[in-house]
Design brief:
Elements lengths: L1 E5 L6 H7 L8 H4 L2 H14 L2 E14 L2 E4 L3 E4 L8 E10 L3 H11 L3 H32 L3 E2 L14 H8 L8 E2 L5 E2 L3 E9 L26 H4 L8
Antiparallel strand pairs: 1-2, 2-3, 2-5, 3-4, 5-9, 6-9, 7-8
Helix pairs in contact: 1-5, 3-5, 4-5
């Protein structure tokens, strides 16, 4: 198991606007919120503590809608994403508890706007950390002459939430302060798990380092899709 910390989170302002439901950051209405956006962005940068653990483990398609993860965990999935894969990158990542606690405090004292914006900043931080992780994995895999597949997050349409159990068994999430509850939900809330297929010739390869709506398998089901907002983030490799 490997551990990494991301210390160069930027918190893109336009993404903060999008996460609080204001996709047009340049509109007159959105600009009215600019002082609060910038204040909470700076506060968020002080509070986030991005930590990640990851590992590459074997994977095998064992039947229709079935894979075997790490030679021991059977999982029901959309197997088309795993065809051609001989291993997967599994990861658990979090931004820590500081931002979450401050956001709750702001809501409790009636500072609803500030609390909402700070919470949005936390989501953006987790998105940026996911993009950094994705970029690192793609570079590692390319160096081995292999391909990466799509990002698959347990709880999505392609891989069930129950996969969390296997990931938390294979990775020591306590090392980064993340726990898994009975309902398969993580604490801190601003945490995520990730599975990326890896192989020599995948049926559904994706070599993009950027997290874009075009590369996301959940693009049509995501409430925050840039495609729905009409904002497409260009991808680079």
């Amino acid at each position: 198991m490997q551990r990494i910390e991301w210390n160069n989170i930027n918190l893109d302002t336009s993404e903060i606007y999008r996460r609080i439901g204001m996709p047009d950051a340049d509109s007159k209405r959105s600009q009215n919120f600019k002082p609060v956006i910038e204040q909470m962005r700076l506060k968020a940068l002080e509070l986030i503590d991005v930590r990640c653990i990851y590992e590459y483990v074997p994977v095998k398609v064992t039947g229709t809608g079935k894979i075997l993860l790490a030679n021991q965990f059977p999982v029901q999935v959309a197997t088309s994403f795993f065809e051609g894969a001989h291993e997967v990158l599994i990861a658990i990542q979090t931004i820590g508890t500081g931002l979450e606690e401050e956001s709750v405090r702001l809501f409790d004292v009636g500072e609803m706007l500030e609390g909402m914006v700070l919470d949005g900043c936390g989501t953006v931080a987790l998105d940026e950390a996911l993009e950094m992780l994705r970029g690192m994995v793609v570079k590692q895999v390319i160096a081995r002459g292999l391909q990466t597949g799509h990002n698959l997050c347990p709880g999505g349409y392609q891989i069930p939430l129950e996969t969390q159990k296997a990931l938390f068994t294979l990775l020591d999430a306590g090392e980064i302060g993340v726990t898994l509850g009975n309902a398969m939900l993580m604490t801190p809330i601003k945490s995520h798990t990730l599975v990326i297929p890896v192989g020599e010739k995948l049926s559904k390869p994706n070599m993009s380092c950027d997290i874009t709506c075009e590369m996301c398998v959940e693009q049509q089901n995501c409430a925050y899709s840039r495609l729905k907002f009409g904002q497409v983030k260009s991808a680079t490799t």
